[in-house]
Amino acid sequence: MLNSLSGRFLVLTVLFVMLAEVLIFVPSIARFREDYLLGHLERAQIASLALLADDMIDADLEEELLLNAGVFNVVLRRDEARQLVLSAPMPGQVHKTFDLRDASAAVLIRDAMVRLIDTEPRVIRVIGNPLRDAGLLIEVTMLTAELRAAMIDYGLRILWLSAVISVVTATLLFFAVRRLLVKPIKGVVHQMQRYAAAPEDAHRIITPTASVRELREAETALQSLEQQLTQALKQKERLAQLGGAVARVSHDLRNILTSAQLFTDRIEMSEDPSVKRMAPKLVNSITRAVNLCESTLAFGKAEEPAPSLTLFNLSQLVEDVLDAERLAIGDHDLSLSSDVPASLTVRADPEQLYRMVSNLVRNARQAIVGSGKPGEISVSGRADDNGWVIRVSDTGPGLPSKAKEHLFQPFQGGVRKGGAGLGLAIVAELARGHGGLLMLDEDVTEGTVFEIRLPMGSVA
């Protein structure tokens, strides 16, 4: 019970109501004490007026008047003259005098608390103003035992009333909280459990129904989260199906390309100068296609295969990439250039690095051709203290901000219409496999610049 939200709310409500009642109890008991003393002053004044009306009151009647007033003696000051009107033997010395004429609230509360704590019967003197301007002041002496008993009785009644109010208030709030908060929260939890059982089922996505604004905001946020998760799960399922299809296609394509590779061996023996010049590039292209199919099959099993690191000339690899792209440019006004030192060698997987550079250059070419404007693509390379840096820059339209949000995520970071968004994801994964990374240069204001950074040490 106490571990539930409604149970703890019930306990806290009782405690807070009782605390509020205690704050009310203290001034209330002080006010009761003041009224009690003023009542005795009033009765004492009435008794003194009876004596003033008739000086010949006998001792028994005077004793009866004091007994009814609950005091031992009455002093009335009239016309600046202090007069002992009624008197009776006192059981002891006066312990303390209390003047009610100008007492502040703090003083009254303090005196009331002291009286409750002090259990000894005392004789006190009380001074006040007579009713209806019947004199300058009136003072009486009285015992504190009856006063304290009356204060305790009044306090107990207040405490019992406070307890009843607390229980009733807490019970009403308990059921109100269960109806307005706990029940809707349990409904949300039930919806979450129901959705978790089959997150791919869009029919199980929560529909916001709460009337409480905060709960409705929580349901709306949960609905958005579940929609995104369901969409992601469906996308992953489609990717898994696509992966299986790609693996089958890659398997058959590898066989076809292997056959084509056999025919290129005969083409190389041709005496035609043009054929001799183009045949090596054709052989290299087909070889890379075969390797790509094999890599795709390996990726379908787990991930990109670990790079086979060798030292090779970067300039020649970049020229091969640019030569292949020049064939795809056609009549478009687009220039390709390389700024890689002829002696620069890198330690990487040649096939994977070729794919990295080729993907970046191809993306840049497609962006410039798609814009319909002339442009330029440049590939540069350098070595520094931290490793090798391969920089691919273009003068194209640049990347929109929406594409930058999911730049390296498969099927989400595509910029070109109809593109799958796989190129940059593949480059980023291959770079990570080398222990490096792919970076977008955010400081460039025109065009797009990507950097492949490869470490000189071992693969991470």
Automatic annotation (TrEMBL):
Keywords: ATP-binding, Coiled coil, Kinase, Membrane, Nucleotide-binding, Phosphoprotein, Transferase, Transmembrane, Transmembrane helix, Two-component regulatory system. Residues 248-458 form the Histidine kinase domain. One of its GO terms (molecular function) is ATP binding. SUPFAM superfamilies: ATPase domain of HSP90 chaperone/DNA topoisomerase II/histidine kinase, Homodimeric domain of signal transducing histidine kinase. Its EC number is 2.7.13.3. InterPro entries: HATPase_C_sf, HATPase_dom, His_kinase_dom, HisK_dim/P_dom, HisK_dim/P_sf, Sig_transdc_His_kin-like_C. It is an enzyme of class 2 (transferase). CDD domains: HATPase. The chain crosses the membrane at residues 6-26, 158-177. It catalyses: ATP + protein L-histidine = ADP + protein N-phospho-L-histidine. Gene3D superfamilies: 1.10.287.130, 6.10.340.10, Histidine kinase-like ATPase, C-terminal domain. Pfam families: HATPase_c (PF02518), HisKA (PF00512). Residues 215-242 form a coiled coil. This is histidine kinase. It comes from Thalassococcus halodurans.
